[in-house]
Amino acid sequence: MSVYQVNPLEDSRWPSFLDRRPDSSVFHSTGWLEALRRTYGYEPVVYTTTPPGQELSSGIVFCKIHSWVSGGRLVSLPFSDHCQPLTDGRSFAEVMDWLNTSRSVKHWKYVELRPLSGTDNFHSDLAQSESFSLQVLDLRPDLDTIFRNFHKSCVQRKIHRAEREGLTYQEGRSESHLAQFYELLLLTRRRHGLPPQPLAWFRNVVRYLGEAVSIRIVSKNGQPIASIITLRFKDVLVYKYGCSDSRFNNLGGNSLLFWKAIQDAKLAEHRQFDLGRSETDNPGLISFKENWGAASSPLHYYRLPAQHAARLTSGWRGRFAKNVFSILPDSILSATGKLLYRHIG
User: Fold this and answer.
1) What is the DSSP letter of 154?
2) Domain spans of the chain, in order of start
3) Angle separating helix axes 330-340 and 199-209, nearest 10 degrees
């Protein structure tokens, strides 16, 4: 076989290929790839064994990242929880062999894959680099059954508390919705001692994914207290970002948001609610998602060549860095995120 390059933002075969693949996700979509390109300058590329002019039968999408801080690399895909290679074993091995051979010529430090299912049986040179836990809620049961499967005290009672508190709910994707979300995001990232993602990123996600994006907000007496962003692709709803004002967490606003999202997903006849990846050393977050009845499964990332994954974000987790980020003014905190994120995808 030969390996060919495809521009997924320009080649009309890519969207139709995604429609045919049951394992494609929102992270493969042209909207997500365009948002990555517009915000961070990453160059999307698909490597395939399908010759030009023929209907695509396989493809692995990457972003080319060029950074003077973290070096050049090929990642599938940055800021994406997972991105399954859309190919069979033989084609996968052919593409990975080609990438392994081309790596030094292209000056890539490494090639990274973030598959939903393991690829170690496909290519002997791939080495596991990072591990996470992925939680997915099955939406096929009826709503009453889904609700009964929620943890009684950790979820059901909080939903009822939110309803008693008279919290108001809104959903949209306007600039006003985004401004309310981002204000809460700044609070949350400061609380965690981390810089926020650039506002331009969220604007581009809304612009290029369009109606697939929902910004969900709950308020108390007109004041936004919690918000999440969900993405829709085919019959899957994806939870991607969440934030809140911790002073009001006892009111159950976050629980109400997830419950509204699940109700909307059922109305749209979605099959799954992808709650995203969780750090394995964050049992609280994993428990929060499992309390909704979500099933956990391991999520492994892989690299060529074999090497330990040294994440640039690990430097943000030190006490000094957290203390600095926690006291920065909003404008400087946002500017810090805008400066750093393009180097860590």
Assistant:
1) I
2) 4-132+301-343, 135-299
3) 60
Residue 243: CA atoms inside 13 Å, Cβ hemisphere, count? 22
- Which pLDDT tens digits describe the chain residue by residue (345 residues)? 699 999 999 999 999 999 999 999 999 999 999 999 999 999 999 999 999 999 999 999 999 999 888 889 999 999 999 999 999 888 999 999 999 988 888 889 999 999 998 665 556 678 888 999 999 999 999 999 999 999 999 999 999 999 999 999 999 999 999 999 999 999 999 998 889 999 999 999 999 999 999 999 999 999 999 999 999 999 999 999 999 999 999 999 999 999 999 999 999 999 999 999 999 999 999 999 999 999 999 999 999 887 644 454 445 455 556 666 766 777 888 888 888 888 888
Could you tell me which CATH number the domain at 135-299 has?
A: 3.40.630.30
Give the E-state strand segments of 81-220 in sequence order.
111-113, 127-138, 168-172, 213-220
What fold is seen in the domain 4-132+301-343?
Answer: Aminopeptidase (3.40.630)
